[in-house]
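ping. complex inputs:
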Amino acid sequence: NAGVMQNPRHLVRRRGQEARLRCSPMKGHSHVYWYRQLPEEGLKFMVYLQKENIIDESGMPKERFSAEFPKEGPSILRIQQVVRGDSAAYFCASSPGGPNAEQYFGPGTRLTVT
Amino acid sequence: DQQVKQNSPSLSVQEGRISILNCDYTNSMFDYFLWYKKYPAEGPTFLISISSIKDKNEDGRFTVFLNKSAKHLSLHIVPSQPGDSAVYFCAGGATNKLIFGTGTLLAVQP
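pong. complex structure:
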């Protein structure tokens, strides 16, 4: 049973470009979460999605960031017009849902903005 | 506002001894708590969780204790092994959102 898959593992973008990060949840999981880890900090919640629905986006910056989890295919975290401050490790997690469900994390995408 | 705090950035223990990692929280709405282990350049790996209605949960070498009145939880690893060397994060869970502490780097010396 494959774990949570994320690609790419490393992404380099110039300021002003777009970054697309992909996440395929574990088989049987329909709940996806995105977290960001800035250098020397813990993971910060960004957004929680179920298939075709955004459930909680309280941690997402109001501008330039968007997320989707379509009926078919992976979840996508999209960052438009990247800035140097977007450089971070972005982790996706999935769970089967339900109360107190553990979240299982992917290996992360390390975004570097030059 | 840091809702979950891990006040010890690092901890060093001898192989075979007990490792105790601590975590404090301020949010009374957390339904459950989790501990994750993280190696560099990898995603966090789930270790153990505890419901807010329990005070102890044990899984092999790992035991988590929860003191709700003190808003404190701890992870005990016994016996500690060199492979346990990693960064350990505690997290509080509420409405499917996890709030993480800043992590404690555990070094287990052979």
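Residues 67 and 85 of chain B are 26 Å apart (CA to CA).
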